[in-house]
Amino acid sequence: MAAAAAVSISTASKALNDTGRMGSETRERVKRIAAEIGYRPNALARGLLSKRSFTIGLLTNDTYGRFTLPVMAGISDALVDHGVSVFLCAIEDDPALAQIHVDAMLDKQVDGIIATGKRLDRRLPVDLSNLHVPVVYAFTEGTQNSVTFRSDDEQGARLAVEWLVKIGRRRIAHITGPEDFFSVRERAGAYHEVAGHREPVLYGVWSESWGHEAVEQLWKRPGEKPDALFCGNDQIARGAADALRERGVKVPQDVSVIGFDNWEIVAAQTRPPLTTVDMELKELGRQAGLTVLALAEGRPVEPGVRKLPCRLIVRQSCGGKAPRG
Amino acid sequence: MAAAAAVSISTASKALNDTGRMGSETRERVKRIAAEIGYRPNALARGLLSKRSFTIGLLTNDTYGRFTLPVMAGISDALVDHGVSVFLCAIEDDPALAQIHVDAMLDKQVDGIIATGKRLDRRLPVDLSNLHVPVVYAFTEGTQNSVTFRSDDEQGARLAVEWLVKIGRRRIAHITGPEDFFSVRERAGAYHEVAGHREPVLYGVWSESWGHEAVEQLWKRPGEKPDALFCGNDQIARGAADALRERGVKVPQDVSVIGFDNWEIVAAQTRPPLTTVDMELKELGRQAGLTVLALAEGRPVEPGVRKLPCRLIVRQSCGGKAPRG
DNA sequence: GTGATCTGAGAAAAGCTTTTACCAATCCCT
DNA sequence: AGGGATTGGTAAAAGCTTTTCTCAGATCAC
């Protein structure tokens, strides 16, 4: 303790926190000695008194980390400046495990909890609605009167289809995931709005092989073929691009392919690299982090769902040129 | 506080912790009331006294999470039963950021730190050697006298090549990553030991396109072609499998392809799905977690490097049959 | 020179839990 | 029935900070 090295005990606290009255030379001396001996206050004791642990919990059921990691990065990025550390708890849709983790976090007096997941329209398997700490939902369904951050899939889909239209495509098909996903319906809705109903929507699963198979289906049908494929995610897009190449259809010369998610490992490795829609998950995490911090500090935050805009990432699978470049 | 609801204050503690002497009916009553009002002790106060926070830090520079997530899952899995929560700190090879996170964790009195990374032969950009909390290294280079867990890449490579030999392959080529990676050299060493020096080792980068290009190189050369490709990771293997298919070479009938990493998103989506080597990162994380806990509790742990065996995952890219099935 | 004001610093309490010490009351034994 | 042991429970200290209160000494005004 700095007190031993220097003078008193409460004086030290006041010196280091720039609070209370005292001679400036005493203050400086205490600070200097504290720095010399590398004194750092015990956050547990501090938290015990201040009711703030400078700790938050991130709860996720996205085992694979596709969505959680960018969100986590954004949260950490936003909060590290405020001295806040993040507990990561991966619960695998296991309610019991989830409850254990939530209890452990509450015991450790987290200042707040951020819940995230892999699906906008599903709840985590644990009820967080009546905790005595603030809860923010990010990329997962929240409760009544909660603060929820999500990507604006409608706007993202519009971005994609408008891009295809802008570069001259007219027969745009939509290959996507299971229709019971909310984001699938939202993206399909935006697709219809922009592209009309000239081409079918093919619902399937979130896999490369479905993208592959969907192309087979489309090209087996009689009549004119699509000149663009708006795919529900990058994996489907990759499968579709592969299938087109194998049929001798040139991407992007003959057909443009556009994905969704900007999952680098898939999008950048596709031949050609995928133009796709990025959901800005890191920004989403950042805002969720700042919001839970605001709530923890008692600042008022309007409840409701906040949609964050997506961004178009132009690579080579559509042709066309990047805007402003 | 349970005391208010029930009887005293220190009695409550003893009742709930099954310690001290007291009437069993009092003990039961306190327990019951505590359960009724949902009392949970404050871990901060408890930690202040016991010098144990039941919290550890996981430090990683693997932004992408390919290695960190399984390790994290293993750690969490092993420690959740002990009531330990995990701070995840992603430092992006930024020494200043790393130091901030380490300081924040120390302030919060973590019981220990696990350092992990994306490369066996690189250090994290922060010195953890003289902390007053135990440090365990997992999948990253540790310091002198530290405890380090790593995958046994030599054994893993041997597993792969022996498998190829066992299913009758004789001309086994090795396409792998940059030679300055320790694991590349180790895997190549094992490859040479098992397969001899009949085929060349092609060093390149960790990408699908390198796998693709390497196949071009091999097949352009005059003479007999390889009948098996041992690839340094799954991405290379996928690129190679794609290149073979495009050349009309049948996988696995004509050529077996085997990967390394068992990165599901790549290995399972390859056509055909990749037989590959799994580094058992989750198990690695589990052991690292239990070890740091042991150290935190003062139990002695022999310092040194512990190599964990890899496991062969048989899918369809090699032909042959899965062992015992 | 004396009462009022100010200044610098220390003492003490609070925050919550666990542990040790302690104190009545009961019990047993002779 | 009286002394020692046992029992059931409370009081208090410790762990580390921060904050509020208090106090001694100095300064100032008249």
UniProtKB/TrEMBL annotation, chains A, B:
SMART domains in the record, alphabetically?
A: HTH_LACI (SM00354)
User: What are the recorded GO MF terms, alphabetically?
Assistant: DNA-binding transcription factor activity; transcription cis-regulatory region binding
Q: In terms of domain of life, where is this protein from? A: Bacteria
Q: Which Pfam families match?
A: LacI, Peripla_BP_3
What keywords were assigned to this record? DNA-binding, Transcription, Transcription regulation
Q: Which InterPro entries match?
A: HTH_LacI, LacI/GalR-like_sensor, Lambda_DNA-bd_dom_sf, Peripla_BP_I
Q: Which residues form the HTH lacI-type domain?
A: 1-50
This protein is called LacI family DNA-binding transcriptional regulator
Q: Which organism is it from?
A: Rhizobium ruizarguesonis
